[in-house]
Amino acid sequence: MVRRSGVTAPGFLTEPEPERGVPLAVAPGVWRMVAGNPGPMTYHGTNTYLIEDPEGGAVTVLDPGPDDPLHVEAVIAAAHRQIRRILLSHGHRDHTGALARLCAAMPVPVPVFGSSPSINEDVVIDHALADGDTVGGLTVLHTPGHAADHLCYASADGLLFTGDHVMSWSTSVVSPPHGDMAAYFASLDRLAARGDRCYLPGHGPPLVQTAGFARALLEHRREREKAVIAALKNTPAALADITVRAYPGLDPRLLAAAERSVLAHLLKLAAEGRVRKVEKGWRTS
């Protein structure tokens, strides 16, 4: 593992910029297409997955990606216009922005599956999914934390599509009110106890060191929580000051996202009676 901002972090992966507009094989019957929305929060871009349907002759699209007409055209071409269903990991726009454009471009209606209600009010779910459901040969895992509506999808042969719950290149932002740190801890613990052989995340390359990576992410979050408590120094502190202390040397581009995760930690700690909100910010209880 490596050190990031004074806290031990898992050994995150890097990769060369993937080719755009083409399906990249990541497993038998599974292809990854990387949208053209790179950035400090999305790495090279959002992964859209094409998954061979168990009934044959069509594919399932998992996470259409951002509202980018070039990406939508590439997905449709790669699927040969044979899309049986669309699955959503969660409602954030970098995963669902292309949904309306993709559905409108298809010659026949394509059903949309996901958690309902979506945190994105523009997303219409045709078939609501719950923990333990099966769809397109995949088993649904409700993994709230990054988002209240977050779902992972597990194949029978050990693949787990992890969305933004676990990413191979970075930690996930947990931003209230839709993000919940206590739920994120529990969902990470659940994944760490599983035996999946490969994670296919919403951003970044595939990850084969699965259970160990999930456990390392959970330990990273626990260390960050300790850093948040230490940043209070037994005196009231504003959220911005706590963030700077808990994330020393942080890339300024990530400061706003880090502040949201610190808030999520504080809300979790407050629910546990370990910190409390006061007039000048937060303090230990």
Structure description:
By secondary structure, the chain is of the alpha/beta class. It folds into 2 domains: 2-10 and 18-222, 4-Layer Sandwich (Metallo-beta-lactamase, Chain A); 223-284, Arc Repressor Mutant, subunit A. It has 7 helices and 16 strands. The strands form 4 sheets. A 7-stranded mixed beta sheet has the order 3-4-5-6-7-8-9, with helices on one face. It has a 5-stranded mixed beta sheet with strand order 10-11-12-13-14, with no helix packed on it. It has a two-stranded antiparallel ribbon with strand order 1-2. Strand 10 and strand 11 form a beta hairpin. Helix 5 (210-232) packs across helix 6 (239-246). Residues 1-6 have low confidence and may be disordered.
Element layout with pairings:
Blueprint: E1 2-4, E2 7-9, E3 24-27, E4 30-34, E5 47-52, E6 59-62, H1 69-78, E7 83-87, H2 93-96, H3 99-105, E8 112-114, E9 127-128, E10 134-135, E11 138-142, E12 151-155, E13 159-163, H4 181-192, E14 198-201, H5 210-232, H6 239-246, H7 255-271, E15 275-278, E16 281-284
Parallel strand pairs: 6-7, 7-8, 8-9, 13-14
Antiparallel strand pairs: 1-2, 3-4, 4-5, 5-6, 10-11, 11-12, 12-13, 15-16
Helix pairs in contact: 4-5, 5-6, 6-7
Short description:
By secondary structure, the chain is α/β, with parallel strands linked by helices.
